[in-house]
Every structure is written in structure tokens, then in C-alpha cells.
Amino acid sequence: MNFTGKTAIVTGGSRGIGRAVCLELAKGGANVVLCYAGNDAAAQKTAEAAEAAGGKALALRCDVTNGAQVQSLIDTALERFGRIDILVNNAGITRDNLLMRMPEADFEAVIDANLKGAFLCMKAVCRPMMKQRYGRIVNLSSVVGLRGNAGQVNYAASKAGVIGMTKSLAKELASRGVTVNAVAPGFIETDMTAAMTEGAKTAAKGSIPMGRLGAPEDVAGAVAFLASEEAAYITGQVLAVDGGMAM
Ligand code: NDP
Q1: This prediction's pTM
Q2: DSSP letter, residue 175
Q3: Cα distances (angstroms) measured from residue 49 to each of 21, 32, 34, 150, 190
Q4: All domains of the chain, ordered by start, with CATH?
Q5: In what order do the strands lie in the sheet with 178-185?
């Protein structure tokens, strides 16, 4: 896919799925602005790899739960590259527990990072995208947002919320050349799922028709497609990238 002349913001771009998305977009020639929470070394490495892949890259520390930091991220990207064509809302966290043991703070932290973070980033990019009458927003949801999962009431609420937000903004921006879609990954091998026991991984594989966990690159390909010019007539959709798990 060709992203020459396009500028992309990828939140949570330092590691995992976000890193793979940065590299996929950079491979197509995009300018990539990746933000991250605190892992400077990983973010710098991803930026270097994105430049090696063919794009220009900038790594900026930005907490997506903080509106002022998000605005400054967008302002810096606009100053540096002049426009923002693509936003990938990928930053996310988990704080798993059964509801009866879940501290209120863990509910709020997950909603803040996964749902409010995406809201703040979309709010900050929608004006420049509407003005240029072009934009691609891709939000990371999850199969858990579609099906629920014991021990993840907070995470499921945030990821189901992302779907509602995606469809609503898709309707608001459809006439302006801006598409808004979501990708719902299944089990993907990243730091987020590294804590799963071997038993849990085997059980997960049993529920996946393709019989394997996904790789970050499996998700990055779907995100890049929805972020491409070719996906111009697709909006408000949720694309499951899960080896068939949620069908
Ligand atoms: P990782 O835990 O590997 O990486 C998380 C990324 O998000 C890191 O770059 C981290 O930055 C960043 N981040 C976390 N909190 C913030 C914040 N407040 N502000 C800015 N950046 C932040 O996650 P994955 O790659 O596994 O997941 C990526 C997305 O995909 C998430 O939204 C997740 O919910 C979703 N997803 C993942 C699945 C999986 O199986 N892995 C399945 C379904 C959905 P830093 O490196 O600085 O900590």
C-alpha cells in the first residue's frame, strides 16, 4: 500500500501491535508520529526501524489520557509534517480482575486509557481532517468488546465503547471524506498477552478456528488497509482479526 506524502499518528507505537502498524505504514512511505507512555528505549527503536523501512518517524512521549498532552502531540505533528491523514488509536492497557474484586481505580484507569484516550485523540485530529476533507481513523477494539470475557469487565466496557464511538463518529464525518473504522483483534502475541499461562494459551488456541495466536503483523495489515486510500468507501465497520474466533 502506498502512503507516500501521508502523515500518520499511531498511539502506543513503541511496542506490540502499535510498533507493527508503524512499520507497515512506514514501509508504504508514510511519515509516522508515534506516541508512547514511558518506554523511551522501545519508542526510539521503533522510530529507527520505521525510518529504515522507508518513512520519516518521530517518537513523542504523550499520555493519551491527558488532553493537553494529546493537543501538543497533534500540534507538533502538524508543525513537523503540515497535515495529519491517519490516526491509529492503539494505546491500551489491561487491569484484569473479577468484578467483585476489581478496585474502582482499575476500572477508571482502563476506561481512561482505552476509551477516553481514543476520544481525546479523535477530537484533536477531526478539525484538521475535516478541513483537508481527507482522513482515516482506525481504532483498536478487541474480540473482548464483542463477546465479553470473565475477569475483564473494565477492558470489555472500554473496547465495546470504542465500537460505539467509532460508529457514531463515522456518521458525523462521512460527508467530509473522513472514515472511522475499528479493528477487533483476538489473541495476539505481545507484552499484553505475555503474562498468560501456557494452559491459558492452549485453551485460547482451542477456541481459535485457525489454531494459533495472532502476530502483531496480522493486525497491522488490516489496520494499514483501513488507513489506505483504497478503503475510501468503508466506514463505521468493525473488522475482526482473530483467526475466526469471534464468528
Ligand atoms: P502492549 O502492551 O504491547 O503495548 C501497549 C502500548 O500502549 C505501548 O506502546 C504503551 O507505551 C502504550 N500506552 C499504554 N498506555 C498509554 C497511555 N496512557 N498513553 C500513551 N501510550 C500508552 O499492547 P498490545 O500491542 O498488545 O495492544 C495494542 C492495542 O491492541 C491495545 O489497545 C489493546 O487493547 C489492543 N488489543 C490487543 C490484543 C492482544 O491480544 N495483544 C487483543 C485485542 C486488542 P509504553 O511502551 O511507553 O508503555
Answers
A1: 0.98
A2: G
A3: 12, 11, 12, 37, 18
A4: 7-241 (3.40.50.720)
A5: 56-61, 31-36, 7-11, 86-89, 135-140, 178-185, 238-241
One-letter amino acid of 159: K
pLDDT digits (tens, 9 = 90+) for 135-190: 999 999 999 999 999 999 999 999 999 999 999 999 999 999 999 999 999 999 99
**Residues flanking ligand 1, CB < 6 Å:** 11-12, 14-18, 35-39, 42, 62-65, 90-93, 113-114, 117, 140, 142, 185, 187-188, 190-193
Query: pLDDT digit string (tens) for 73-82?
Result: 999 999 999 9
Which atom of ligand 1 is nearest to 185's Cα? 43
pLDDT per residue as tens digits for the range 206-238:
999 999 999 999 999 999 999 999 999 999 999
Strand partners, 240: 184
Cα 208 to ligand 1 centroid, rounded to whole Å: 22
Question: Which residue owns the Cα nearest ligand 1 atom 41?
Answer: 188
